[in-house]
Backbone:
């Protein structure tokens, strides 16, 4: 029987690339997100390209009742999740705290911290009962340092860092691996979401240097899960060569 991987936020960017990579590596995949059309499209793509099975779930990770309903009502053959990739997340806005938009803060905190917790709370008891599993949390360079105007997003990713370390301790007696993968800038829809659909502003984030692409992070995820069982890649920081920290880039002058 194939192993099962659940990837949150598979409708775009990192999550989509991770789902495709794991399907290619013969995992059956549960893909989740809020955009049903994109889930359907990805499901078709995986079914055409790979032998793996796909099950898609449309829910908002911020709403505990939706998370619980979707994940506790899985068909029997999909219940034993081996790999959980907590990827769904976002940044909204880039302002100093004194000008911050409360709704932007709520969206980031509710998605990046509470959503990750809700999904983990629902999936991890099965792993504990089976004494096996691997939880991958997508953190960020923003969880390792702070940059101006990004305090709240950075705080949510610092929370992911702390939660990953705490989960590692909690899961230790059960042989469940916990990995945090922290990317620097990856060219996805991340900045388009952060700048609320302003494509010109989003493009500038990736201008003048070579950002990571989503498959770079899918490779990192696969590296972590393909290690022998006694090896836990606990924390991985993956940066573009042209980026040294959250705010320092080397950009070619035009
Ligand atoms: P994208 O915007 O391309 O993808 C984000 C994904 O998260 C989408 O599939 C979206 O699905 C999902 N998502 C967002 N909010 C919710 C929600 N409330 N409920 C369910 N799903 C949700 O961005 P990335 O792929 O770049 O981001 C993925 C992760 O990587 C995030 O955690 C981000 O913080 C992190 N990251 C990104 C970096 C980058 O530079 N791109 C760098 C470091 C970390 P839908 O809208 O369909 O619900
Ligand atoms: C996304 C990376 O540096 O834009 O987590 O915050 S950054």
Residues:
């Amino acid at each position: 029987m194939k192993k099962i991987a659940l990837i949150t936020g598979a409708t775009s960017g990192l999550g989509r690339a991770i789902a495709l990579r794991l399907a290619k590596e013969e995992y059956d995949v549960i893909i989740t997100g809020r955009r049903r059309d994109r889930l359907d499209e990805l499901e078709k793509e995986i079914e055409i390209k790979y032998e793996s099975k796909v099950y898609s779930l449309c829910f908002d990770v911020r709403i505990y009742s939706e998370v619980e309903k979707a994940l506790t009502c899985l068909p029997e053959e999909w219940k034993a999740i081996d790999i959980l990739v907590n990827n769904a997340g976002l940044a909204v806005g880039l302002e100093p705290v004194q000008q911050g938009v409360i709704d932007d803060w709520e969206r980031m905190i509710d998605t990046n911290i509470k959503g990750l917790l809700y999904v983990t709370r629902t999936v991890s008891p099965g792993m504990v009962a089976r004494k096996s599993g691997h939880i991958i949390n997508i953190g960020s360079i923003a969880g390792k340092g702070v940059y101006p105007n990004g305090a709240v997003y950075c705080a949510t990713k610092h929370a992911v860092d702390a939660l990953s370390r705490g989960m590692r301790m909690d899961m230790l007696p059960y042989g469940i691996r916990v990995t945090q993968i922290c990317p620097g800038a990856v060219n996805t829809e991340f900045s388009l979401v952060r700048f609320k659909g302003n494509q010109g502003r989003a493009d500038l984030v990736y201008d003048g240097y070579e950002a990571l692409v989503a498959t770079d992070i899918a490779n990192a995820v696969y590296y972590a899960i393909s290690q022998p069982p006694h090896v836990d890649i606990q924390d991985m920081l993956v940066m573009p060569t042209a980026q040294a920290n959250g705010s320092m880039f080397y950009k070619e002058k035009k």
Q: What stands out?
A: The helical segments are 13-24, 36-49, 64-72, 102-130, 151-171, 190-194, 199-205, 214-225. The domain at 4-238 is CATH 3.40.50.720 (Rossmann fold). Residues 179 and 189 are 24 Å apart (CA to CA). The chain has a mean pLDDT of 98.
